[in-house]
Amino acid sequence: MNNPAPKEWRAEDYSQNYIADYKAFNFVDGEGVRNSLYVSGCLFACEGCFNKAVQNFKYGQPFTAELEEKIIEDLSHDYVQGITLLGGEPFLNTEVCLKVVNRIHQEFGIKKDIWSWSGYTFEELLLETPDKLELLGKIDILVDGRFELSKRNLNLQFRGSSNQRIIDVKKSLAAGKAVIWDKCHDAETTYEQIKKRL
């Protein structure tokens, strides 16, 4: 696993504006019915990464205006709660992510919420480059921190290892410290045996 110094990794130096995948109308990448945008490229290289191919910044296809329109069209349904940014590393793909987030705010205001996963912690992002800070300020929920295989726990809600947190970004920025999402709840029973059968 790699641990960057503040501002060591700049999106402008690495991002190719590629998208690994886009999945509409799913229930697994956050609360409610969501659309998920998987950006390509990550430098953290966490042991046990479930999406290793997407660490490549040229995996998949370039982001297009057509995909942007598709995202907006899919979000326009009343039953869709919002969008989730994943990867790869969204905060190393800020040009694409900010384009999408700004368009969503333009079209829907605050009616659609925005989640993001990141290998960066909330505290690390506060020390980062202006583009990363801008993206942080425009999302609602951040699932933060590197995946740590030794802390893997299948009982956790929306995250893979116990060091990761589900953070309410707006409350955290106001408080100047990480505030955990008030709907966070973890399971008491593991579902690993079901996963092994699949």
Structure at a glance:
With 198 residues, the chain is of the alpha/beta class.
Structure description:
The protein is α/β, with parallel strands linked by helices and 198 residues long. It has one domain. Helix content is 28%, strand content 19%. It has seven helices and seven strands. A seven-stranded mixed sheet has the order 3-1-2-4-5-6-7. Strand 1 (18-26) and strand 2 (33-39) form a beta hairpin. Helix 2 crosses helix 3 and helix 3 runs parallel beside helix 5 (130-137). The radius of gyration is 16 Å and the shape is globular. 35% of the residues are buried. Residues 191-198 have low confidence and may be disordered.
Using brief descriptors, characterize the structure shown:
single chain, 198 residues, alpha/beta, 7 helices, 28% helix, 19% strand
Give, in spatial order, the strands making up the sheet with the most strands.
3-1-2-4-5-6-7
Helicity, as a percent range: 25-40%
For the record, give the distance between the C-alpha atoms at the N and C termini, rounded to a whole number: 28 Å
Structural class: alpha/beta
Integer-rounded radius of gyration: 16 Å
Outline the biggest β-sheet: 7 strands, mixed
Q: What is the percentage of strand-forming residues? A: 15-25%
Quaternary state reads single chain
Helix tally equals 7
- Mean of residue pLDDT? 91
H and E string: HEEEHEHEHHEEHH
Low-confidence stretches: 191-198
Number of domains: 1
Give me the count of strands: 7
What best-fitting shape do the alpha-carbon axes yield? globular
